[in-house]
Design brief:
The complex is a heterodimer of chains A (205) and B (467). With 205 residues, chain A is an alpha/beta fold. Chain A has 8 helices and 7 strands. The longest helix of chain A has 14 residues. Chain A starts with 5 loop residues before the first strand and ends in a 7-residue tail after the last helix. Chain B has 467 residues and is α/β, with parallel strands linked by helices. Chain B has a 5-stranded parallel beta sheet. The radius of gyration of chain B is 21 Å and the shape is globular. The chains are: A alpha/beta (205), B alpha/beta (467). At the A-B interface, helix 4, helix 6, helix 7 and helix 8 of A face helix 2, helix 3, helix 5, helix 10 and helix 11 of B.
Chain lengths: 205, 467
Amino acid sequence: MEPFKTHTGLAVPLNRVNVDTDAIIPKQFLRKIEKTGFGKHLFHEWRYSDYEGTKENPDFILNQEPYRKATVLLAPDNFGCGSSREHAPWALGDFGFKLIIAPSFADIFYNNCVKNGILLAQLKSLEVDEIFAFVDKNKGATVAADLPAQTITAGGKSYSFQIDAFNKECLLKGLDGIGWTLQFEDKITSYESKINSQHPWLSRG
Amino acid sequence: MSKTMFEKIWQDHLVRDSQGDTAIIYIDLHLVHEVTSPQAFAALRENKRTVRCPEKTVATMDHNVSTRTKDITKVDANSRTQMDTLSNNCREFGVRLYDFADKDQGIVHVIGPEQGLTLPGLTIVCGDSHTATHGAFGSLAFGIGTSEVEHVLATQTLQQSQPKTMLINIDGQLSKAVTSKDIILYIIGLIGTAGGTGYVIEYAGSAVRALSMEARMTICNMSIEAGARAGMIAPDDTTFNYVKGRDFAPQGNDWEKAVAYWKTLPSDVGAKFDRVINIKAEDIKPMVTWGTSPGQVTSVDGVVPDPETLKDAVDRTAARNALAYMDLTPGTKISDIKIDKVFIGSCTNGRIEDLRAAAQIVSGKRVAPGVTAIVVPGSGRVRIQAEKEGLDKIFIDADFEWRFAGCSMCLGMNDDQLKKGERCASSSNRNFEGRQGPGGRTHLMSPEMAAVAALTGKITDIREFVN
């Protein structure tokens, strides 16, 4: 995984609440065994006016200039709700998104993004509203994230966000989570021998 | 000190507590299916890692399978590739697999409980957000992404930050024809689709205690639709009676030991929850969604709301978008909405009790002209049991289609889909735009209400129907 330290990029406002992962990447594109190539189908039903994805819907914001090159996504509450499909961050990342700013995110989606080097910055509703207003007024404006400092900068104003210390470290270092856990393999082994004797019905062998 | 059931299970599974970083918790049961696992197995292979506990890993094929045929050559090439990939992965890593042709194949959240793999006090994960279903047994069960699937395969553990706890008490007696599906839709309407974000919800109270195991599973299943990581219900005699004697349930001496442990799990008197909600069972009516989010829900005797009357600007915009997509006009009576299709099935409502309840309603009657109705059992075992009871004949005689087990039209990954503009009365769990097929319109409700809708061709108040 690519480490994430800072990012400055063009921000696109997606003014829809409760954007679910079915909308981010519809089911017909989940029948793959790779992690790549999902970006073309990001927001498929909104982005294209035909099932095959050959005709763009000109009303959808990602089909308008300058947003085709957006790397920062702004959204209202509960972004990424619904299905646990990690294809959603794969699609967002493949399109080019590095940073998503919203007042709240769904839990599983949040974890999935951290695992894919995408920073989710949770700001207060009023702060997100301010950034929405700023990018609406200044089409094509950039928004910046500084993960070590835990700040988002937009329109000369700085906003701080909270992030779990471990998630922060994972993003900053591009950490291999499995490698990290396996440094405690002896603890896993001793847990297993303890629990298998206390709760023998758990060793299903 | 008094503890919640969640805290007890969490502490019993701590391999390593957080030291300013993250806790590592042990996973007792890992359920796997064909859509969210191929990339995880591929990464294991790439990194020369292996499956730590194949015996605690169980796989099935459910999302992609055809419900019309058991002939794998008849499914599309991409789905077939995913199924073949799962077969190969399970063979290579020694994981037990119920493949598309196995008589015990079925939706992952139906087969776990029916085989006794799901037990109280376990930690259970699956690359599927409806894993919360298993919490009905008093286990901690939740959905994970593919990177986490890989992590569990390799280490049998997960890195987790401790969630907050919410208690939802539902006391009193449910009114006639009100089901556990109505309870959970009512709760989602009340707390919103993000109301549970960051929480594990425990459902309690006399109305919950009175429910069967299958009805409890329906409630826990849709916890994710309220944003919650997991839903749980304390184990009791109903739980123990359901589990006893199942294929993988503890036996003999182990059974006694297990029950003694399970009886220690319910939340202690005085245990502190971060949030408590009290609901009167009598306030709950049969519920139907009108929008494109499960929180856009009302009772069947209600009307489609007017977005302009909503206080919150964001809700207003969301409701406007939803009504445009659903092609509904504010003020329309819910019971005047005509439907084209009916889907009875899914991990929410595809169990034998659901099929019995629906069959009782349609027995001796006919699906309304112009309506297509399908019944998709949750598993091969549910299908066989239903056939033993003659339910298949009741459905077929009433012009329902009787299918093989799978996720089917809940998410339309196979060929069971709504066409653009079609409207469906569905016993499933999500009414998102395009969920059941691009341009399709979903109204979520209980399987009983979906069955009535099939007969009348419109959403119908079951209370009038059964009277």
